[in-house]
Design brief:
This protein is of the alpha/beta class. Helices cover about 25% and strands about 30% of the residues. It contains eight helices and 19 strands. An eight-stranded mixed sheet has the order 5-6-4-14-15-16-13-17, with helices on one face. A hairpin with a 5-residue loop joins β15 and β16. α1 packs parallel to α5, α1 packs parallel to α8 and α3 crosses α8. The chain is globular, with a radius of gyration of 20 Å.
Length: about 350
């Protein structure tokens, strides 16, 4: 059979990673998105990269790979510029906390009131989700992938229980395999061909603050406050969505986050809100990733998950291997779409 190529729908970080890895395997790849890379949920991600200390989740074998796969990817693409700062959590933030430290002050010297003990994850890191996604998409293009932006996919082409391509606003693109990495947008495309993809949008707010550099050293996480800081002083602080329905409400929430940061870190009194936005994360019904080929439908491969940033490096490699070789990766056994059949 002639190689009709592989179409990856969605240029968030997972889609860009899948396209990059497929192109690296010598496959003809088209990465397509209705907007720019990282214009969906990826752009509003806190972008924390870590792995569980222990876990009995079905996705645990995949999650254990997260940090190592990013080190591999960073060796291939140093411009990812991952900040391996480690992470500190306390006050019951982490269900699986790992090793503890009573030397919080040395790790976070600007904390106004450091806890007597915190859980320390020295191997954790974070990246710029937009820059990282753009890097992966660009690298996929350098490997020969075709990148189509500003081109919405309007339908899957479905014939005789097989997906054979996509319909876009610019025409039809035939494909040997269509990979859906479009977050919540994958749901309607699957539903239109009778494939059940139980994913709901899970909103979260990301606040960016302008502050003095050097206030936050690691990734800091408590039930009431999460924060990390970039070299230029920008503080990223995610917070729960509580029904904000207009910009005024979002600005009020951002100000509350700013006030918590100012109280938590010495020298943060002058911090100012730069931006606030809602990210509509794709959340599977059981909170576990959905990765693989839905039963009864040839030519379709699904990659939908939270946290996409954490898992993107591992999923990109494993999904590409499965698509190219036809051999299932054991690390993805607990993530199959068939569990919803």
């Amino acid at each position: 059979m002639a190689d009709r190529g592989i179409v990856v729908v969605g240029a968030g970080i997972v889609g860009a990673s899948v396209a990059y890895h497929l192109a690296g395997r010598g496959r003809a790849v088209t990465l397509i998105d209705a907007g720019l890379p990282a214009s969906g949920a990826t752009r509003a991600s806190f972008a924390w990269i870590g792995r569980p200390v222990s876990s009995d989740l079905p996705s645990a074998p995949l999650r254990y790979l997260a940090v190592d796969e990013y080190h591999r990817l960073e060796a291939e693409l140093p411009e990812l510029a991952i900040r391996w700062t480690g992470a500190l959590s306390w006050d019951g933030f982490d269900d699986n906390p790992g090793p503890a430290t009573d030397d919080v002050r040395s790790l976070e010297p600007k904390l106004a009131t450091p806890p007597p003990q915190a859980f320390h994850h020295p191997d954790d890191g974070a990246l710029d989700p937009i820059a990282a996604t753009e890097t992966l998409a660009r690298a996929a293009g350098q490997r020969g992938a075709r990148i189509l932006l500003g081109t919405p996919v309007t339908a899957l082409i479905h014939e005789n229980e097989s997906v054979t391509g996509v319909q876009t606003t610019a025409g039809t693109i035939p494909a040997e395999t269509v990979v859906l990495a479009a977050g919540t947008g994958s749901v309607a495309l699957c539903t239109s061909i009778g494939v059940n993809l139980p994913v709901e949008p899970a909103p979260a707010i990301l606040v960016k603050l302008r502050a003095t550099p050097g206030l936050v050293q690691a990734i800091v996480a408590t039930p009431s406050l999460e924060a990390r800081q970039l070299d230029d002083g920008t503080i990223l602080a995610p917070t729960a969505y509580s029904g904000e329905s207009d910009h005024q409400a979002l600005q009020a929430t951002a100000q509350q986050v700013r006030d918590r940061i100012a109280k938590a870190f010495e020298g943060a009194e002058d911090a100012e809100v730069v931006s606030v936005e809602v990210g509509w994360r794709p959340m599977p019904a059981d909170d576990e990733p959905i990765i693989g080929r839905p039963e009864g439908t040839d030519g379709l491969y699904v990659t939908v998950m939270h946290s996409a940033i954490t898992l993107a490096a591992a999923v990109g490699r494993l999904a590409a291997d499965e698509i190219v070789t036809g051999q299932e990766a054991p690390e993805l056994a607990g993530c199959r779409p068939s569990r919803f059949a």
